[in-house]
Backbone:
């Protein structure tokens, strides 16, 4: 069986005067269904760039990206966006919640992309509020929550539509250590229940939650 994700010779560069500056160089990587991968490396190594390519936020790259057997690199933009919304959940370091929406409304947003009936959406939101123990926060706005609570909502939003893969970019970067640990334990539980996770992290502790560690340096995968 093909892996969930297959990257072949992914390269990302920017024009720089007459030449090019490379952010990623010949990155080839397989990620299996149910894997938990930690991507590490110094600042500027290309970690977040790689994650945004996986999340289909960036389509300007060379090489091949296959997700669930589909050649993402060959897809028209509309189909690529559909595939991303259907199968990928993204957790940002700075939460990216919508400020003018309540917790409940923030959680409902990813479901509206999927033509899920309103009654079914209500059930799914209620289920996630309960699972993440944030029922009491459902009518609050992001600015009424602590950083840890906002990140909890962001993770809940990423998983609500039951994606095949969750991508997390420094998910505990803005949190106290105890809040960060709570988020990592949550990822561990999600992974044990079958969700594939790829996280970018500077933290050895966070990285150790993964089943394997990929190290990047100057855009290259290094052993």
Residues:
């Amino acid at each position: 069986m093909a892996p969930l994700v297959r990257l072949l010779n992914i390269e990302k560069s920017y024009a720089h005067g007459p030449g090019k500056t490379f952010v990623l160089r010949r990155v080839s990587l397989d990620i299996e269904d149910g894997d938990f991968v930690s991507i590490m490396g110094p600042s500027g190594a290309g970690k977040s760039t790689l994650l945004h390519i996986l999340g289909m936020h960036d389509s300007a790259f060379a090489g091949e990206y296959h997700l669930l057997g589909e050649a993402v690199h060959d897809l028209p933009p509309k189909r690529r966006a559909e595939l991303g919304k259907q199968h990928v959940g993204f957790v940002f370091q700075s939460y990216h919640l919508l400020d003018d929406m309540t917790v409940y409304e923030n959680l409902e947003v990813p479901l509206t992309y999927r033509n899920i009936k309103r009654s079914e959406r209500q059930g799914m939101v209620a289920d996630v509020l309960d699972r993440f123990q944030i029922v009491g926060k459902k009518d609050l706005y992001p600015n009424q929550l602590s950083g840890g609570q906002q990140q909890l909502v962001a993770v809940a939003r990423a998983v609500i539509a039951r994606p095949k893969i969750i991508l997390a970019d420094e998910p505990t970067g803005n949190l106290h250590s105890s809040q960060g640990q709570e988020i990592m334990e949550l990822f561990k539980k999600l992974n044990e229940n079958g969700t594939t996770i790829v996280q970018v992290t500077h933290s050895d502790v966070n990285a150790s939650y993964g089943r394997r560690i990929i190290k990047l340096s100057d855009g290259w995968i290094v052993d």
Remarks:
- The radius of gyration is 18 Å.
- The helical segments are 47-54, 77-87, 103-112, 118-131, 147-159, 177-192, 204-207.
- The domain at 36-60+76-216 is CATH 3.40.50.300 (Rossmann fold).
